[in-house]
Each structure stands twice: as C-alpha cells, then as structure tokens.
Specification:
12 helices
Length: about 290
Amino acid sequence: MNRSEGLVQRRNIIRDTGEGVNKESQSNEKKQEHDEDIDEGDSKETRLTLMEEVLLLGLKDKEGYTSFWNDCISSGLRGCILIELGLRGRVELERAGMRRKALLTRKLILKNDTPTGDVLLDEALKHLKETDPPETVQSWIEYLSGETWNPLKLRYQLKNVRERLAKNLVEKGVLTTEKQNFLLFDMTTHPLTDNVTKSRLIKKIQDAVLTKWVNDPQRMDKRMLALIFLAHASDVLENAFAPLNDDDYELAIKRVRELLDLDFEQESVKPNTSEVLWAVFAAFTK
C-alpha cells in the first residue's frame, strides 16, 4: 500500500460523516494515565479512545453507519487498539538487539497486564498475555481482525468491534441507536446526536496540521499523531478535511503526506518516542 494513497486529489463529494510491577513502573503508569486525562476542551463524558475517534470520523452523521465500501476501517481499528495499549504502558516491542532488528520483525511483548477498564483493550490484552512465543505487530493486526489463514489463530479475532465501539459512544451521549430497514434485512444504526463532540474532533485534527502544525513528529502529541495515521489507514481522514477551503485542504494534505513519508525506523529510535506507535504505522504502510 502506497503511504500517500488516497491523498492525491480532493473528493468532490463531502461525506457525512500488576503483579511484579515495581514502584517506578507504577509511577510511570499513573503519569501516562494522568496525561490521558488531560484532553483539551474535553469533559470526562466525551473523552474518547483512539478507536472511538476513528469510528466517529467514519460514521455518516444521519445514517449512523460507515461506508459499505470501506474495507480498511476494520484493520485500522485493530491498529488503534495496539497503539492504545502501547500508550497506556501495557505492551512494548522486544529489544532491537545489536543488529538492530526492523520494527516489523520485532515481537510485541506484554509489559503490564493490569486491566485498562476498557473491554476491547482488555480482551486484546488477554490474548497477548496468553500467546507464547510472542508475535509481531503485523501479525497481531491480522489476528485481531480475523484476517489469517491459520485456524489456530482465529480465536484471537475481536468480534463486532464497530458495534461495540458505537455502543460505547451511545453510552457517552455522542450517538443514538435506531433500527433501519434495508429491504431484505433490518440493521441497527447509530446516528450522531452530539454534534459538538464530532465538530471538536474534526477541528482538533484540522488544527494539528494547520494552525498548530509543529513540523516535527517528535513534538506532536502522540495521540494526535496516531489519530492522523490511523484515520488515514482506515480511509476516514478525508472526512476531517472535506469542510476546509481549497487552500487549507491542499496544505493539510501536503503535511499529512510529509508524515506518511517519514522514515519510521529512524523516528522510532529517537528519545521519548513510542516504538509500538511507529511499528503500527510501519505495518500499515509496508
């Protein structure tokens, strides 16, 4: 998959859119979770995970479902799950070693098995804990998506992820639940009810590549960097840029392309970075 695929031209149609954990690691974990709590402008009721943000970007506001033609969002959401676990200090990559293994060949290992409190994250964490020997990030994206030819790995598939995330958003007051008839079958849909939360999400992404652009991925907020990459991998980033005027749109696309063209291996060895984050990016752009 070409990293810049989907960013070449603008679409004309705007779519709706702890055991054994030492004190130091506990302190780091608390700091990470405290950092997660500080989300500018967001109340506790509308604080969203990466998975929820990507799904919200992909949902059509009135219809309440994602595009039937989007075959990328399933694996994209699994990538979000791995990055969430990495940012929350639950998983990490094995050491690179003297010969400096590539990101995609290094195994994803358990760092802390303390539950996160999020059902999907904890289900994935349980699978990771039970797997020996460990697997790569690329393999875990495939396993969690059910996209594997190995029948022994099918048990790792996370099922009904979009529906479960949508229900989370319903509980947070962002979406509602309706039944729609599609001639041959009925389908549960989740139309948008809280326009403020989605508008804030879209503006946050726009600002990150326009008014608040820092031209250095290491200085960008890790969650925002992950959101931009995973929204692109899920083919929903366009929904955040569609409302922009032509000049801002072209500038936003240019800056996203710059991020996609980064050397992920080089970025992953810089101080205070997240190797899991860069490994997931590499898995979607190999």
